[in-house]
Design brief:
heterodimer; A: alpha/beta; OB fold (Dihydrolipoamide Acetyltransferase, E2P); Rossmann fold; seven-stranded mixed sheet; five-stranded mixed sheet; elongated; B: about 325 residues; alpha/beta; six-stranded parallel sheet; globular; pyruvate dehydrogenase (acetyl-transferring) activity (chain B)
């Protein structure tokens, strides 16, 4: 049986090409791997090898023909003893797989088809649980220490985490308790040690990588995004990176443009990553413990200014906070203020002041940005019909933009005013104290936004 | 430093030589078939063939023990076949089908096998180097005596993260063999045009990492060097660098016409230095095998490769639901 030789695809984008030259002639015996022809693709001239063996019975497309579509028969290969006239042709055209027959159910079905899930309003800890005041700093340390006691595969690595006791003293005491095998000082080499931590996670350990600040994680972005976040998918579920990347994120005070940036929106963009950004000490503790146990790469965004702030933390042996569950800090009826991380300080301060003017604001702390608790936000907006978002990050592609889009798609009929996003300004962070204050979001701006959406 | 070569009359068994012949031939024939399937439109995107470099992985696998790990770049088909992964699963991944190692979601550059300790398949040049050292970090943490082979090319040898990794691997004495597969071209850039000093095996000197250059067209030389390197790592002395001089017969990827080198240069390599021909001659001259024996092996390999191509064509495309799976792992 004769076999058709088809015009080959010789580059990822080639749809047609020029058959520049035949290097064999009719009647020649060819074996698999012989160069049959030269073909000009959209990029270059390529040699084309024989797939099968046989005798070139006929050339169907002469040399010099332009615009030959991929998979067009260009020649006929005969078996021994066969002649062109009597040959029956085995078409190679049917090589492509049948198209998948199902239509895809997209995650973004039209708004009308949506039913809104009930938000989870269970308390973070049982009523009557004893609490104590702890700083965010102490809460983070306790979370790591508890998880390291619980699981020998958990270890901490980063710059100055061991002997120096942490650049911001988050890892205070951990070297003494767990030793240098599990609390590891690295050289100043973020790209390299992030890659090593990703490899250790592939190898079954559960690394906690501390960045002295997340600004330095930019050096390691490729390892975080391309290696840690995507491997589970690329391996068809065979292996992934169970690990935590943590450290202070966002502006501190007077440290200039390269050390003052909120990366919440950057990391939240990436499928495969989870992103937590706590405000309070109890959330810092409960979410970090959850992050360390999570079998996926988790970005854990802290804030230097919050490290020293104290909050109530429950006295429980094993206190965790689930991902994807926002916390309502203040109930209200006139407007929903959605924030996370240090943004909560502006949101809560604005709500306090607005209450004096008789405006009742509901304040929601998202706590995790991926997964994102949209149910709690939507349920609140269904009650208040207005929403203002607050974050320190840049305005373009901000988390608030995403919340606005979700509300438009899923709660449009409940909105009585456009959603306003209060963000940091669209400028690199200046050093001068007065300019820095204005570059960040301010409580005043949040209050003005609330007045605007409530038409007061 | 002269490249390590095998002895003129090596002390090697017929069985061992035959195994290397078979393993190298499997890679060659598999890659040729992959090239053909690409031309037929069954494989898309990038497809980096390993033809010419077969002795590198086959020689180093001969020096590996059960439980040792390996990780490499995007030119990874040979590494997977050499460590015992199933040709059907590899070919079906190339065609993007459900039967592929990554259910069709990874492609030519992204395959993994926990069972065979193969950790990918990485598409960003040099990124696998710290990851390989991290695998070795996990082994050292567990004190299990295992070694990780971390493969990268002469192109990747100029990436900054490679040197960050050299520093930490040496500092922490990680059991990792850095295998620089020097095929002399970083895509289309010849080594002398991209590299200020030609000897890549000396790149670890600043970090105190020993290195040697090896003739990568000689499988026995590669195996011997691999044994030295592995022994160094298992003795707790830290990393070791092997610069293995090899040659890629085909273009960088499928759409590369390889105009940056002459046809004569490639032809000369193929005719005079081919790693498979080298073992074939040893088998015949040493009277370890007859022409008929080798023909039988050729036939057997051809059948395996053809079967993998058939499997890869017949395996269905992944179900559309697969689009949404494996993004996050569920907690135990």
């Amino acid at each position: 049986m004769a076999t058709e030789i088809l015009m080959p695809a010789l580059s990822p984008t080639m749809e047609e090409g020029t058959l520049a030259k035949w290097l064999v002639k009719e009647g020649d015996t060819v074996s698999s791997g012989d160069i049959l022809a030269e073909i000009e693709t959209d990029k270059a001239t390529m040699e084309f090898e024989a797939v099968d063996e046989g005798i070139l019975g006929r050339i169907l497309i002469p040399a010099g023909t332009e615009g030959v579509k991929v998979n067009t028969p260009i020649g006929l290969l005969l078996d021994d003893g066969e002649d062109v006239a009597s040959a029956t042709v085995e078409s190679a055209q049917s090589q492509q797989p049948a198209p998948a027959d199902k239509t895809l159910t997209s995650e973004s079905a039209p708004a009308a088809a949506r039913t809104h899930p009930e938000p989870d309003r269970s308390p973070d800890w049982p009523e009557g649980t004893e609490t104590h005041q702890q700083t965010v700093r102490e809460a983070l340390r306790d979370a790591m220490a508890e998880e390291m006691r619980r699981d020998g595969d958990v270890f901490l690595m980063g710059e100055e985490v061991a002997e120096y006791q942490g650049a911001y003293k988050i890892s205070q005491g951990l070297l003494d308790e767990f030793g240098s095998k599990r609390v590891i000082d690295t050289p100043i080499t973020e790209h390299g040690f992030t890659g090593i931590a990703v490899g250790a996670a592939f190898g079954g350990l559960k690394p906690i990588v501390e960045y002295m600040t997340f600004n330095f994680a930019m050096q390691a972005m490729d390892q975080i995004v391309n290696s840690a976040a995507k491997t589970l998918y690329m391996s068809g579920g065979q292996m992934g990176a169970p690990m935590v990347f943590r450290g202070p994120n966002g502006a501190a005070a007077r440290v200039g443009a390269q050390h003052s940036q909120d990366f919440a929106a950057w990391f939240s963009h990436i499928p495969g990553l989870k992103v937590a950004m706590p405000y309070s000490a109890s959330d810092a503790k409960g979410l970090l413990k959850t992050a360390i146990r999570d079998p996926n790469p988790v970005i854990f965004l802290e804030n230097e200014i919050l490290y020293g702030r104290s909050f109530d933390v429950p006295k429980l042996d094993d206190f965790t906070v689930p991902f994807g569950k926002a916390r309502i800090w203040r109930e209200g009826t006139d407007v929903t203020i959605v924030s996370f991380g240090i943004g909560m300080t502006y949101a809560l301060e604005a709500a306090e002041k607005l209450a004096e003017d008789g405006v009742s604001a509901e304040v929601i702390d998202l706590r995790t940005l991926r997964p994102l608790d949209t149910a709690t936000v939507i349920a609140s907006v269904q009650k208040t019909n207005r929403c203002v978002t607050v974050e320190e990050g840049f305005p373009k592609g901000a988390i608030g933009n995403h919340i606005s889009a979700i509300l438009m798609q899923e709660a449009f009929d409940w909105l009585d005013a456009p959603v306003i996003n209060c963000t940091g300004k669209d400028v690199p962070m200046p050093y001068a104290a007065n300019l820095e204050k204005h570059a960040l979001v301010t409580t005043q701006e949040v209050m003005e936004a609330v007045r605007k959406v409530t038409y007061r | 430093m002269a490249a390590r070569k095998s002895a003129t009359k090596p002390n090697v068994s017929a069985e061992e030589l035959t195994r290397y012949y078979r393993d190298m031939l499997l890679i060659r024939r598999f890659e040729e078939k992959a090239g053909q399937l690409y031309g037929m439109g069954l494989i898309g995107g990038f497809c980096h063939l390993y033809i010419g470099q077969e002795a590198v992985v086959v020689g180093l696998e001969a020096a590996a023990e059960d439980g040792d790990k390996r990780i490499t770049s995007y030119r990874d088909h040979g590494h997977m076949l050499a460590c015992g992964m199933d040709p059907n699963g590899v070919m079906a991944e190339l065609t993007g089908r459900e039967g592929g190692y990554s259910k069709g979601k990874g492609g030519s550059m992204h395959m993994f096998s926990k069972e065979k300790h193969f950790y990918g398949g990485h598409g960003i040049v040099g990124a696998q180097v710290p990851i390989g050292a991290g695998l070795a970090f996990a082994d050292k943490y567990r004190d299990n005596g295992r070694v990780t082979f971390t493969y990268f090319g002469d192109g990747a040898a100029n990436q900054g993260q490679v040197y960050e990794t050299f520093n930490m691997a040496a500092l922490w004495k990680l059991p990792v063999v850095f295998v620089i597969e020097n095929n002399q071209y970083a895509m289309g850039t010849a080594q002398q045009r991209s590299t200020s000093t030609p000897d890549l095996h000396t790149r670890g000197e600043a970090f105190g990492i020993p290195g040697e250059v090896v003739d990568g067209m000689d499988v026995l030389a590669v195996k011997a060097a691999g044994e030295t390197a592995v022994g160094h790592c298992r003795a707790g002395k830290g990393p070791y660098i092997l610069e293995i001089k090899t040659y890629r017969y085909r273009g960088h990827s499928m759409s590369d016409p390889a105009k940056y080198r002459t046809r004569e240069e490639v032809q000369k390599m193929r005719e005079e230095r081919d790693p498979i021909e080298h073992v074939r001659i040893m088998l015949l001259e040493g009277k370890h095998a007859t022409e008929d024996d080798l023909k039988a092996i050729d036939k057997e390999i051809k059948a395996v490769v053809n079967a993998s191509a058939e499997f890869a064509k017949d395996s269905p495309e992944p179900a559309l639901e697969e689009l949404w799976t494996d993004i996050y792992a569920e907690a135990d």
